[in-house]
Amino acid sequence: MSAGVLVVPGLSDTARSEWTKMRTLLSTKVTLAVTALLVIGLSAVITWAAASSPRHGTDSQILVDPLAVIQSGWGLGWLAFEVLGVLVVTNEYSSGMIASTLLATPKRLRVMAAKGAIFSVVVGLLSLVMTFVNFYVGHAVLSAYPQFYDPALGANDVLRAVLGMALTSTLMGLVGFALGVVLRHTAGAITASVAVLFVLPLVLEALPTSWRNAVEKYWPTQAGSQLEHVSRQAHALSAWWGTGDLALFVAVLLGIAGWVLVRRDV
Amino acid sequence: MIQVRNLTKRFGAKTAVDDLSFDVQPGVVTGFLGPNGAGKSTTFRAIVGLVRPDAGTVTINGARYHDLPAPMREVGALLEAKAYHPGRKARDHLLALAEASRIPRRRVDEVLGLVGLADVARRKAGTFSLGMAQRLGIAAALLGDPPVLLFDEPVNGLDPEGIVWVRTLMQSLAAEGRTVFVSSHLMSEMALTASHVIVVGRGRLIADSSIEDLVRASSGSRARLRSPATASLVPHLRAAGATVEPGEDGAIIVSGLELAAVGDIAFQAGAPVHELTRIEASLEEAFMELTKDEFEFRAQGATGAGGGDPAGTRAQKLAGTGVQK
Hints:
The complex is a heterodimer.
Chain A: H1 11-23, H2 26-52, H3 61-64, H4 66-70, H5 74-95, H6 97-104, H7 108-142, H8 158-183, H9 186-204, H10 209-218, H11 220-224, H12 239-263
Helix pairs in contact in A: 1-7, 2-5, 2-7, 5-6, 5-8, 5-9, 7-8, 8-9, 8-12
Chain B: E1 2-11, E2 14-24, E3 29-33, H1 40-47, E4 55-60, H2 71-74, E5 75-78, H3 90-100, H4 105-114, H5 130-142, E6 148-152, H6 160-175, E7 179-183, H7 187-193, E8 196-201, E9 204-210, H8 211-219, E10 222-226, H9 230-239, E11 243-246, E12 252-255, H10 259-269, E13 275-278, H11 283-303, H12 310-322
Parallel strand pairs in B: 3-7, 3-8, 5-6, 6-7
Antiparallel strand pairs in B: 1-2, 1-4, 8-9, 10-12, 10-13, 11-12
């Protein structure tokens, strides 16, 4: 029983704790490293395959939007970050760690804010490194094929598209994070994440064209991915409106997550 | 001091804790007893805010757990053995908890030494045995050096040496003036560790008293009587309202009469008395006696018939107290 002054912990202490939790799990570090390698490797292979393909139609993506080809491994990266976002939360529930966490910090929103912030910073910084490595690797591949336009960072909107990839990835990760808080179970939350990212967009394909174009335009993961394109796609929001659409979706999910987190039993 | 007032918690149709009120005082080890599903763990979880009560309040030194400015410095709790991620090293687990509570890093090594895990501090906690997991949970509870401690089944999975260690630890924590609230399904262990007990059954308070009072009250008046003239004596005892059962080695067990009355009747009947002893109940028997209604109610509910068979009821009692969780 310390007779001294009671030291009152705050948000920064919770954040420091969450950072310790993240860096002391080998599985998290391995997931991040494998994701980075896969996204960079896959992007390079797709860029090389597209560039070395013997025939190109006039609408071939490598002619229209080479930057999107350079970054094409990101679909996998988004899924991986969503899954990681799910796991940083559901791991606590499946292991029983959540009881220890909430004993140390009974203010649940503070725990969610600290955990979400640490996760965003880690995923954001890693994505930033990945997107630049992707860009320069793609640049190097394309330099061997002078018939294609090889985007430079200084060119119109290219830097925005490269930086934007880090922002979109972080938001995608937060989709998984929020779904993890709401659902608590790994399998359910991963299923929901995959549904948001891949399955529902596929279902949209079955809708009549006029409906599809309208829904696709605002579907958050579709809208958010516009930031990677230098040229604007048909039936799509502009890059920043699209990102705003995704950010709003994430904000709503996080709001729901916080609301249920403080109300239910652990 | 922990104050539980009219605590009620329902899970769907099941009422886990039903209008429960009690205080846990500092300076003594208070035991928390009750059969399976009596609501002990739910009560523990409500004390620290992991479970939201449907009604009632729980305060620790006057404040709700959620409102304590530095909770781990005021309350330490071991709720479930494995409240950690198996992939994290024991020391890192405690470090994360210490950081969240702004507790200095050196305290982590201190408590690891205190619970005897210093040598395995850098091993992944997932490789720990149940006994080591309990020690890690106790280390976490002690991190903030708190004046209030809660332990849910702390001796589960511990070897005999570990059990003695936990018992000594609880008692020394209480002797330092802390509030120590501990549940266990091992009555004999509780009789050795605690000096006060709170007994619950089906979410309701059954008893809140010192162990001595509890045992004395449920011992009632049972006596062992040894006499060469048992046969002639028994009718006199029965006439006085006593229940007489055969005991070991020709002795008889007399219940329902005060010890002095039994002696007087023997004297009047002219029966020589070789032994007349009061039979003290153990805490286990006292507990059985107290929670009898809970179990009998259940046995009847299960068979759908009133009365039930005594042997079955007895078996239920034994099963109910023998295995927790």
